[in-house]
Specification:
This protein is of the alpha/beta class. It is built from 14 helices and 21 strands. Strand 16 and strand 17 form a beta hairpin. The protein binds zinc ion.
Length: 497
């Protein structure tokens, strides 16, 4: 069997001013053809699982590209055509393709296509015809569409947030693809949605409605009632028609197909009714900067660190990663023993690398949009560490894959060790500190920029975890002006009974 695989992943924050062009795609997590096995074989990643499955089932893999850009603004047409084109062209010219196992995000917005994944899958389907099984893994924050459900045979969303099950979901997809290619099953997927921009506690699976829908779906899968049940929470920083949570159900239509599809649709509708009823459920609480600074001051010597996450400048949600408001609050309050990740500021890193180890004055952060979480800060301190930003991530989400945050440094200002990076990215791995000579467990306070993913690696070292709202780009703001492309009526913009 010849299987087309690859990654093309982007979570698009349509409110970001940073366009996602080829230069952005190439900056982090971009690999072609022959580079791919060396990077992913033997890792606990989706492609790592795909290589293992290929060995087990004797597949010949065709892998034209693996591209995973950090969340940012709308993807340019050029970048979509170039990367998507690599996949479509491989389907057309490196065949015959017996099956497809793709790892996509599901919330990619392209300048000319609100539904980037739906467009890609439609093009692949047009090349491969209606019978070739196309199995797709998705991020739990996918804004899944009818077009995606129509053109993929199966959609399999992650079931954990932090996302620590990419490897398991890829294996689930591989097993299903093998069954489909050998003719044992014929998967088709249906989708249900409700008029809502967000829900399912933004995807937190530890308790609440997300946990309930995952448990119900897994029981159906185990009983063999459905092939896949996937609940996706959606990604709400997207002004697009189809934004919001969804449930997709994949059924076997090799027998009475119409009955199987009707049963799948009924399950998806029932689950989305529950999602709608539970729309107000929220398990997280955001503190003001003053409240968070106060908490950072009350540590005792010898305590484990307080971990403070800037929820609204989360680079994992398209935040610029250069908001300074919380850092400014810590400096003004004279808080010390703080490790701060990070300010993404290529200009300041370059100036720091030129200056070298020792005393320095740098202007850091707040340059992308000073209205989003604080403008530039000019600070005098000491540069204590310089690196190229590369390290292997061994944390729960890292999978043993090499990461590259670009030239990086540590800038010590008073008692605060500030990490400056070139390639934007949220803090999800302790290696983002330790590779820069910072041992986070030795600090009273550890600051990260992240909504939820940081918990996998940082909760185990924390005495407590708090979230802070610094007014940056990922603030939970919902107004009709911001969401003027969304279908209406829609909650929470409209009153819906
Ligand atoms: Zn996600």
């Amino acid at each position: 069997m010849r299987v087309l695989t690859g990654r093309f992943m982007h979570e698009t924050n349509t409110f970001s001013v940073q366009k996602t062009d080829m230069a952005v795609w190439r900056r982090r997590g971009f690999h072609r053809d022959n580079e791919i096995p060396a990077v992913f074989r033997g890792t606990r990643s989706a492609l790592g699982a795909t290589f293992e499955a290929a060995d087990k089932y004797g597949w010949t893999l065709v892998h034209p590209v693996s591209a995973n850009a950090n969340p940012s603004g709308i993807v340019t047409d050029d970048a979509f055509e170039e990367i998507g084109g690599m996949m479509v062209s491989a389907a057309a010219h490196q065949g015959p393709i017996d099956g497809v196992l793709l790892h996509l995000h599901g919330a990619m917005v392209v300048a000319s296509f609100e539904d980037g994944e739906g467009e890609l899958l439609a093009r692949l389907r047009a090349v491969l015809g209606p019978e070739v099984p196309i199995v797709v893994t998705l991020d739990l924050h996918a804004n899944v569409t009818q077009q995606m459900a129509d053109h993929a045979s199966a959609l399999i969303g992650f079931r954990t947030y932090p996302h620590v099950d990419m490897y398991e979901r890829a294996w689930q997809g591989a097993e299903l693809l093998q069954r489909a290619m050998t003719g044992e099953v014929k998967p088709r997927t249906v989708i249900a949605q409700r008029p809502m921009i967000y829900g399912l506690d933004r995807g937190r699976h530890q308790a609440g409605p997300m946990a309930e829908l995952i448990a119900r779906g897994e029981a159906l899968e185990a009983a063999g009632d459905v092939l896949v049940s996937s609940a996706c929470a959606g990604f709400s920083r997207a002004n697009i028609h189809d934004v919001g949570p969804s449930v997709t159900v994949t059924v076997d239509v090799s027998g009475d197909g119409a009955a199987a599809l009707a049963r799948g649709q009924a399950i998806a509708e029932e689950y989305m009714d529950y999602c709608w009823q539970q729309r107000d459920y929220e398990s997280f609480k955001l503190l003001s900067i003053a409240e968070a600074v106060a908490r950072a001051r009350d540590g005792e010597p010898g305590d484990k660190p307080l971990v403070v996450a800037d929820y609204t400048d989360n680079p994992g949600g398209g935040g610029y990663g250069d908001a300074t408001a919380f850092l400014k609050g810590l400096i003004e309050a004279g808080v010390d023993s703080v490790a701060f990740h990070a300010i993404c500021d290529p200009e300041a890193v370059e100036a720091g690398h030129r200056a070298g180890i020792g005393p320095a004055t740098l202007t850091i952060g707040g340059k992308t949009d000073p209205a989003m979480g604080g403008g530039p800060l000019t600070l005098t301190g000491e540069i204590t560490h310089l690196t190229d930003g590369r390290f292997v991530a061994y944390g729960p989400m890292g999978g043993g894959v090499t990461q590259n945050y670009g030239p990086s440094l540590v800038f010590r200002v008073g008692g605060i060790d500030i990490v400056l990076i070139t390639n934007n990215g949220q803090a999800i791995d302790l290696g983002q500190f330790t590779s820069l000579g910072i041992e986070p467990t030795r600090y009273a306070t550890v600051c990260v920029k992240s909504m939820q993913h940081f918990r996998a690696a940082f909760e185990p070292i924390a005495r407590a975890v708090i979230l802070v709202d610094t007014g940056a780009l990922c603030s939970e703001t919902y107004t009709p002006e911001l969401f003027d492309k969304v279908r209406r009526p829609v909650w929470p913009l409209d009153r819906i009974e």
